[in-house]
């Protein structure tokens, strides 16, 4: 067995055990049951893992920060609970969303209390670190909300620029990865410059991960991919690919693309095939991959320049993030 | 002019000026405009005023805690924004609610960011006080959510006990008044025993205020009352009055009450008159007043036993809370 893999699994196992025993609250049950429900839908626990690994670059007692690390996961799941209401999503990780299983009011209120519980977990950091940690957390939390609002605004907009799109995904998803890493470094007492660089690393690979998501939705191998390939095409989701295609298409391709986007009724498979063909003709895949690699290179470059006390842990964190960058599903 | 009145007005004026200049955020405007909108709908600013007055029992530099005091008002307005979605309320203080003026998604997300901004304001307390203040704030915030969930649960329940109702209003509205007072005392460095007593004072008068609300909704003088007298009767709202009436009514009165509650179509004025008549016959007004006075007496008793450095400010705080206890609208 890969000894590196073993260490990440150990940390993940300890984290999982820890959050299973955490008490969010008891009564009324309608408020607290949805919290356990969404927290137990699984997921890869990337964010708290980033916090625990960043901490472990500098110290070997990550058990001490399991609750503070959980704050990032609880916050992330709070945003999922509320985003699912806004997006009217019936499913999350293959299971009914909270507003579907209970109702939207419960999903609003249970989400609100989750955000409060994330702050409760944050309170478990060392006293003298609380103000700076909370300031960064608040900034990040507001940015995640801003990103979600930009994303909703894009839905009703006719065109979105590449720049506006990158800024939206930076806010909506990437800054939380940056925070997770910086937070772990701060909790470990790492130098400010290191913590800042880890933040930048997280933001850059976070943008890369989202571009990867956009790519996989069109170009994944259906046999390996967890969901329907082409889902974004079917729903006209303004991904990096569609934004670039709209920008670059002219003549017949432009008209074709517009017709498929405007079509109220269509054969899903035909639409996916036709739009993918337009993407291929315009070289959208290559353009998106180039943009993605640009962010990965920047991020991994920032990471590799770090000098840390525990190089073994650095290799583990690199492996984990590279696996995510190279994933096929 | 009453010099006491002048001082409260001065504090209130300073607070109002302060929150007018506070910057919540800029972009996207859909996220931040609703915050300014709801914060500018007015209201009496009772909660931050309680914080500022409690602080002023011990110190004479309340200007230093205007931002921390605003945290309570921002939190309160966040709960209003989300409660209005859940209650499907079209109006708040005579103006369109946020979910009506914009849409429910904006009201969810703008509310979320408001809660984060309340924590930002909390961050302005002295560093060494932050952990204890935040712990109390989190506890209170979770309780307010619990109270709202209990209230929603009551809507679909056939019967609610007096005890469950009092506990619901304690959580939903009273604990935040208790927190506001305790918070001001803590920020002023008051003895723990004083801060604890101010909390109890706030919770007890808070329960009294809600019972007063329930009473006014039926027994206010329509000429003085801001809204339609009898609104709670029309909507079958499970107030203390209705809960007691259901508990005590027998025979014909019980049947009458049930018929009015179950009626799908009815003349509003007739329903209000008929249910009020049942309340009168059962002595509900007196019962509710007695319960209310019980909480006021307990609260004001706790308050009067306090020994504080600034007795003039104590008189002001007493006057303010007694005015609220005696209000007719």
UniProtKB/TrEMBL annotation, chains A, B:
Tell me which cofactor or cofactors this protein depends on: Mg(2+)
Q: Does the keyword Metal-binding apply?
A: yes
A GO biological process of this protein is: isoprenoid biosynthetic process
Alphabetized GO MF terms: metal ion binding; prenyltransferase activity
Q: Which domain of life is it from?
A: Bacteria
What UniProt keywords apply to this chain's record, in alphabetical order?
A: Magnesium, Metal-binding, Transferase
Kindly give the CDD domains that the UniProt entry links to this protein.
Trans_IPPS_HT
Q: Which family does it belong to?
A: Belongs to the FPP/GGPP synthase family.
Q: What is this protein called?
A: Dimethylallyltransferase
């Amino acid at each position: 067995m890969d000894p590196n893999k073993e260490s990440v699994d150990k940390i993940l196992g300890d984290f999982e055990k820890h959050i299973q025993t955490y008490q969010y609250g008891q009564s009324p049950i309608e408020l607290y049951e949805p919290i356990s429900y969404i927290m137990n839908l699984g997921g890869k626990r990337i964010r708290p893992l980033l916090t625990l690994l960043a901490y472990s670059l500098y110290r070997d007692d990550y058990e001490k920060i399991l609750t503070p690390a959980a704050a990032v996961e609880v916050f992330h799941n709070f945003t999922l609970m509320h985003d699912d209401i806004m997006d009217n999503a019936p499913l999350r990780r293959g299971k009914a969303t909270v507003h579907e299983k209970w109702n939207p009011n419960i999903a609003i209120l249970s989400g609100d209390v989750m955000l409060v519980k994330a702050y409760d977990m944050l309170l478990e950091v060392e006293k003298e670190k609380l103000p700076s940690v909370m300031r960064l957390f608040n900034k990040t939390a507001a940015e995640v909300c801003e990103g979600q609002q930009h994303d909703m605004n894009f839905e009703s907009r006719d065109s979105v620029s590449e720049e506006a799109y990158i800024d939206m995904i930076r806010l909506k998803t990437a800054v939380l990865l940056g925070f997770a890493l910086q937070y772990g470094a701060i909790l470990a007492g790492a130098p400010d410059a290191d913590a800042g660089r880890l933040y930048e690393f997280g933001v850059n690979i976070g943008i890369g991960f989202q571009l990867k998501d956009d790519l996989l939705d069109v170009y994944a191998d259906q046999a390996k991919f967890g969901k329907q390939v082409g889902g974004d095409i079917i729903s006209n989701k303004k991904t990096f690919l569609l934004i670039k295609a709209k920008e670059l298409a002219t003549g017949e391709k432009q008209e074709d693309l517009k017709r498929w986007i405007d079509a109220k009724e269509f054969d899903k498979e035909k639409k996916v095939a036709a739009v993918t063909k337009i993407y291929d003709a315009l070289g959208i895949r290559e353009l998106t991959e180039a943009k993605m690699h640009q962010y990965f290179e920047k991020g991994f470059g920032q990471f590799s320049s770090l000098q840390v006390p525990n190089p073994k842990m650095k290799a583990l964190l690199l492996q984990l993030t590279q696996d995510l960058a190279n994933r096929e599903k």
